[in-house]
Amino acid sequence: MKLLTLLFSFFTVVYLSINFYNKKNTNDSVAIGADSNQVFFPIILNNELLDIEKAWKELKNARASDDVIDGKKEPQNKNLTFQLDEKKYTLYGIFSADQNGFALIMDENNKLIKLAKGEKLADDITLLSLQSDKISFDKNNQIIEFKLFERKNNAKN
Description:
- About 30% of the residues lie in helices and about 30% in strands.
- It is an alpha+beta fold.
- The strands form three sheets. A four-stranded antiparallel beta sheet has the order 3-4-5-6, with no helix packed on it. It has a four-stranded antiparallel beta sheet with strand order 7-8-9-10, with no helix packed on it. A two-stranded antiparallel ribbon has the order 1-2.
- The N and C termini lie far apart (about 75 Å).
- The model has no long low-confidence stretch (mean pLDDT about 75).
């Protein structure tokens, strides 16, 4: 068995060596060295846009022009915007660390307000509670709640 393995290994090495030597000789005739006088220029590519790329750019430009109003780009705000006492506020986040939770709220003057539970947003508006799905305010003993995430379902089930 050892003799058979040895013979098979020997013939494999000889076969691979012959193939390697033959491929090396054929590649030498095709290969161009540094002393060659031939010059190859790169292929000039067609830089025209595809039809799908043109359509995509048109849509992108149309969306960009829709976002611009009176020369100013409207910010795309994905945060919750709510209104209290004729003032608009934007909720930027709720942060909770055990009992020391707070909310970051920006008013319409772009002033960022850190509001903890029990603090006043305005003279008669107090932050009542912070929960994972809603934020509650107390305005003259009336509870006002704003839901953070509402499921929008188009299907009528």
